[in-house]
Design brief:
Blueprint lengths: L1 E2 L7 H14 L5 E5 L5 H13 L4 H20 L6 H24 L4 H25 L5 E2 L2 H4 L13 H13 L5 E5 L2 E3 L5 E3 L4 H12 L5 E5 L20 E3 H9 L10 H6 L4 E5 L8 E4 L11 E14 L9 H11 L6 E4 L5 E7 L3 H11 L1 H6 L6 E12 L9 H11 L6 E4 L5 E7 L3 H13 L4 E8 L3 H12 L1 H8 L1 E9 L3 E4 L9 H6 L2 E2 L2 H11 L4 E5 L4 H4 L2 H5 L4 E4 L9 H13 L4 E2 L2 H4 L4 H10 L4 E7 L2 H9 L6 H10 L8 H4 L2 H13 L9 E4 L11 H10 L1 H13 L3 E9 L2 E9 L12 E8 L7 E6 L3 H16 L2
Parallel strand pairs: 1-2, 1-7, 2-4, 3-4, 7-9, 8-10, 17-18, 17-21, 21-22, 22-23, 25-27
Antiparallel strand pairs: 5-6, 9-10, 11-13, 11-14, 12-13, 14-16, 15-16, 18-19, 19-20, 24-26, 24-28, 26-27, 28-29
Helix pairs in contact: 1-3, 2-3, 2-4, 2-5, 3-4, 3-5, 4-5, 7-8, 11-12, 14-15, 16-31, 25-26, 26-29
Length: 811
């Protein structure tokens, strides 16, 4: 049984492990290996480094550590049992202070002395825990691991001499009959009897060494989590415990950053086929993770996802490498000589370049070594100086069942690419148990969440939404999202998290998602609105499956779409300004959408909730050709002319339309035809035509006197022009027609304006605020394809935005 630093961090935890050990040792001979108290090894090393740097603060740090251990003794032991252990603690710290005093005087800290200083963490913790066991009548022997674990002299990460170590352990245990043994982890000794350490996870390794030498029934690693997990739970909220895992899978995951098990731990026990169980000191009833040679097939192709942060990618490139043997050997020899560990290797098939990943901290030493090794080739131009890219990480997916199973790497890289995550290098072992990718450190959290969702959460997809605009449409959209939350989860396995909400005054952002039943209060308690900051927050959070929804008519908001698409954040726009701006701007946004795998959807730009753009896109994608488009595209104008019959003033009918939410905030955008011009231009562009606003003919019916001034000035002017509007109505009625504001596109030309619509025409019986679009195409040459329905109103427009958001989620 091995207990890590968190398990022995304080007196309460040590009491817990005593209880666990007491129960385990009732029927079976048990060896317990303990780490230093949580954080102590780092502090001891810090004290040594302070001393080496001539900083007298090492004394203060040692005093703090001494006090912590003395307090631990007083808290764990009865007063009558404290004296000898308190004396031992003081003795150890006197020795430590003497060592550090010598380091301070010499201002030099050799690896050998550093190992000696670091070893005191385990010496102290094991002595205190041994005294606690004795006080609780737990008969045991405190082992001297320096006499049992034999190593070479690679201080800081010594290699175990297994034949000598196994012989020493078996010899000692053959002469000892204790039911329980306690051993400090992490340390051993070399042939000269000097203390060595086994690496920063060395206590796990110590326990594995004892388990293998004694042919133990099981090795238990007790920590602060209930087993190995499918991903780091600090990064992935949906990470779950892995019940069973093979030795090879566990080693791959631990090598790639899963800190639950120190990578070398499994080597000694794997040779003896001794199973390992990861257990939680703070939830001992949990089953944990069982590691063994044979694992039953649970249908999962991937066992887990892990990462190594803070790595550098080294690239050796040059035409002089092609076809010349020995370059790889010289590269790795140069790195080996400087004791630089290589994490990942990849080489181009052209032999023009070799890339290796190393720890960031080793990058400059690696460059010096490699440039020196290839100085002649560099001078001759055949090889370029070693290139270094820093601030990277390695993300790996691991699983035994990946072998010979097609599609795993495709699924992995498709998921990363869809979320705009750039892959710098790729490696896969021939065993097919691991696929590794080098990414930017900025993308690591997003990447692991994306991959976890792709491989482990296929049931539930999370979409992260940033919303601007909380007026009529925005408020309805939030209400619909809240209402449909359970429906989407149960029927579409989709969870929409609204991360940010903003209006013209305030904004609020919450990583965990905003409570949509109380969003008004949360927004009111938010911070002052700053569009640039809101956009940068969306970009900086770098969340998977991100969507930005613009439910405003604000040109400033429309101007930020490119910044969002460039970060693979999909944009859903109710705002028509971007798509009706210059053709160059429109094409740039469409191009960015394609380049960065982010959707740019704007269905509500034309027909509110009607599937107008979607229908047009489907026609074109399926090979149809558009001959003409005729449409009534303004719910406002249709409402106005359906309700105006001369019995009440035209201005009054327009005001009613505004009060019922059918018009733009400034009704002149509707009545001047500008809004309809934008809509027919968007349809023409989506049909593949290059059209600008200046190319559209607008047969304006609104008198020029109504254009200047405020909105209220507009209503006053309309009242004065009542005779003009009455004349328009009377002329249409006299011809037996109805007035409709029609947009047309044919032969590459677009126009808008009032028309007299006779009975029998598709537009004649158009009621209320309805819109209608007629597509005449190669497949619909005589009877046009008709899309018809409500074209205005907050509810239907919100539902159109909602539908676009769902489309993003379903890619």
């Amino acid at each position: 049984m091995k207990f890590g630093g968190s398990s022995v961090a304080n007196a309460e935890n040590i009491r817990k492990i005593a209880s666990i050990v007491k129960q385990a040792a009732q029927n079976k001979k048990t060896v317990v290996v303990v780490s230093a108290l949580g954080g102590v090894t780092d502090q001891l090393l810090s004290a040594g480094n302070l001393a080496a740097g001539g900083n007298e603060r090492y004394r203060e740090l040692l005093q703090q550590l001494e006090q912590r251990h003395l307090d631990m003794v007083r808290e764990l032991l009865p007063v009558t049992n404290q004296s000898s252990t308190l004396s031992l603690v003081k003795q150890h710290f006197n020795t430590l202070e003497s060592i550090c005093d010598g380091v301070f005087l010499l201002q030099e800290l050799s690896p050998r002395i550093q190992d000696k200083i670091a070893s005191y963490g385990e010496r102290l913790s094991s002595a205190i825990i041994s005294a606690h066991f004795a006080a609780n009548e737990m008969t045991h022997e405190l082992l001297d691991v320096t006499a049992l674990i034999k190593t070479n002299s690679d201080y800081g990460n010594a290699l175990v001499q297994f034949p000598e170590t196994n012989a020493a352990i078996t010899s000692h245990f053959s002469k000892s009959e204790f039911p329980l043994y306690l051993a400090p982890g992490f340390t051993g000794s070399d042939a000269k009897g000097q203390t060595t350490t086994l690496g920063r996870g060395g206590s796990d390794f110590t326990a594995a060494i004892f388990a293998a030498a004694l042919n133990a029934e099981v090795l238990e690693i007790w920590t602060d989590v209930s087993g190995m997990m499918t991903a780091d739970p600090r990064l992935v909220s949906g990470a779950r415990i892995i019940p069973e895992i093979s030795y090879q899978e566990a080693m791959e995951l631990s090598h790639f950053g899963a800190k639950v098990v120190y990578p070398p731990t499994l080597q000694p026990v794997m040779g003896r086929n001794i199973p390992v169980r990861i257990k939680n000191t703070f939830a001992p009833a949990d089953e944990g993770t069982f590691i063994s040679r044979e694992v039953k097939d649970d249908g999962e192709l991937i066992r887990g996802i892990s990462s190594i942060p803070k790595i550098a990618l080294l690239s050796l490139e040059g035409s002089g490498m092609v076809g010349i043997p020995g370059f790889s050997h010289r590269l790795f020899a140069a790195l080996s000589e400087k004791k630089i560990n290589v994490i990942l290797i990849t080489q181009s098939s052209s032999e023009h370049s070799i890339c290796v990943a190393v720890n960031d901290s080793d990058a400059q030493a690696a460059k010096s070594a490699v440039d020196a090794a290839f100085r002649h080739e560099i001078a001759g131009g055949g090889v370029e100086p070693l290139k270094i890219e820093t601030d990277l990480c390695v993300v790996a997916v691991v699983g035994d069942h990946m072998k010979s199973h097609p599609g795993i790497s495709g699924k992995m890289f498709e998921a990363l690419g869809r979320n705009g995550i750039n892959v710098r290098a790729i490696a896969q072992g021939s065993s097919e148990k691991n696929i590794s990718a080098v990414l930017s450190m900025a993308d690591v959290k997003k990447a692991i969440n994306v991959l976890h969702e792709a491989f482990f959460e296929s049931g539930i997809k999370q979409l992260n939404l940033f919303l601007t605009g909380t007026g009529n449409v925005g408020g309805k959209l939030l209400a619909q999202l809240n209402q449909q939350r359970e429906f989407l989860r149960n029927n579409f396995r989709l969870q929409v998290n609204v991360i940010g909400i903003a209006n013209s005054r305030k904004m609020v952002l919450k990583d965990g998602g905003i409570d949509l039943s109380n969003w008004q209060t949360e927004l009111e308690n938010g911070v002052p609105m700053n569009l640039d900051r809101f956009v940068e927050e969306a970009r900086a959070r770098n969340l998977r499956n991100s969507v930005f929804a613009d439910v405003t008519a604000n040109p400033d908001v429309a101007a930020v779409y490119d910044r969002l698409l460039e970060k693979s954040i999909s944009v859903v726009a109710c705002n028509k300004i971007a798509c009706s701006s210059s053709y160059e701007k429109y094409r740039r946004l469409k191009s960015l959408s394609s380049e960065y795998n982010a959707l740019f959807l704007f269905e509500t730009n034309v027909g509110a909730g009607l599937p107008v753009i979607g229908t047009l896109n489907d026609l074109i994608r399926s090979g149809d050709r558009i001959h003409s488009i005729d449409a009534v595209l303004s719910g406002t104008l249709n409402f106005v002319f359906n309700n105006y019959d001369g019995s009440r003033p035209f201005a009054e009918v327009v005001r009613q339309a505004q009060e019922e939410g059918y018009t733009e905030p400034d009704p002149r955008l509707d009545l001047s035809g500008t809004d309809v011009m934008r809509k027919i231009m968007i349809l023409a562009r989506e049909a593949g035509q290059v059209v600008e606003m200046d190319d559209i003919t607008n047969n304006v019916f609104l008198p020029k006197s109504c254009i200047p001034g405020t909105v209220e000035d507009f209503y006053v002017a309309m009242a004065k022009e009542e005779a003009h509007f009455r004349k328009l109505y009377d002329e249409a009625a006299a011809a037996g027609c109805r007035l409709k504001f029609v947009a047309s596109f044919r032969n590459g030309k677009a126009s808008v304006g009032l028309q007299h619509i006779p009975p029998g025409h598709d537009f004649y019986d158009l009621k209320g605020k309805d819109n209608v679009v007629l597509f005449q195409t190669s497949r619909y040459p005589e009877q046009p394809l008709v899309v018809k329905g409500a074209g205005a109103g907050a509810d239907v427009t919100a539902s159109g935005v909602f539908a676009d958001i769902i489309r993003v989620a379903r890619i």
